[in-house]
# Entry
Amino acid sequence: MRILVAGGGTGGHFYPALAICEGLRKKYPQARFVHIGTKSGVEARMLLSYPWIRFHPILASGLVRTSWMKNAPAMIRLLLGFVQTVVLFLRFRPQLVIGVGGHSSFAPVLLGALLGCVLPIRTVIHEQNVIGGLANRWLSRFVDLVMLSFPQSKRSFPHARKIVVTGNPIREEFLHVKRSPALYRHFGLDPGRRTILVFGGSKGSAEITEQVLFGKEAIARNEDLQILLITGDPEIKTAIQAELAAAGVANIVVKGYVHQMGAAFAIADLVVCRAGATSLAEIISCGKASLLVPWKEAADDHQRKNAQIMEEECACTVADEEVIVRHGLVGVILGQMGDELGLERLAGNARRLGQRSAQSLILGEIGSLMREVHP
# Structure
């Protein structure tokens, strides 16, 4: 089977795609995989570690929703990306096209759906967020199957041919790695201290990093705590480490990027991060207490909507801009860590929401779809 996966840009789009590919590779050992993305997306860096997935970058960019007059450059890039996609289709001849959202998913999924009218090509999209992305909402009219992480997302896809709620798949490492002294030492942490994992998504968050540094003295005074801070930008790691060393702060460990996030989750007593759908899927599948900081610039404010789903189930705490201004992010973190029963309640409720079977559900739906054209 020849499988083409399209989309990415951020880890929230790319990592579910990777989880799907890992599952499909086990189910169809002879399958060949191609991933279409952009050179600037996280997929361009991460796929270097997956030689069995061929990466092909295309031109793609988002549209300016507030002013269609400014969209000429984006439309040109979209057209050129479509031409690049046509060439790749002629060479690879995919039988299954999977779109995971992001600018680079549009041209491949649309072309796959159009060709699927006359050729045995099946098209699928997976939506990670509560509010469907613009590309996925538009493409849902043409694809064979729309897979959702949240049942509340159905209202974003009123014209879809078929919708199935599968959950959001996560990489297998999150499901199998266990807490151990060796993992703490791997990250330069103390096994005797409670650990707070802080990150801002695949591209980091300057706001979250600045908040941690602003409260570094308060963190240093809590000798039973330690923070693993992932900046998402390896270039600023050295400067932050120097700042912490000058202030005598020894219980904040800084990493630019962590490839083994399953290990980082395994040792975390509290996860502090943005409210991207993939991060939430990892949190609930691992059963972790979390403090979510929704990114207010997210399209359609979808991160706040993601966080609200968990907050309504008492499975997280949300620190919005008003809360951070009033207490500071570190103040909220320390308050959370001081409530042991509260942490246990959040972790238990998160575990109850866990979607550990998402990958198998997705593989089952794809298998049924492919048997229709390749019995």
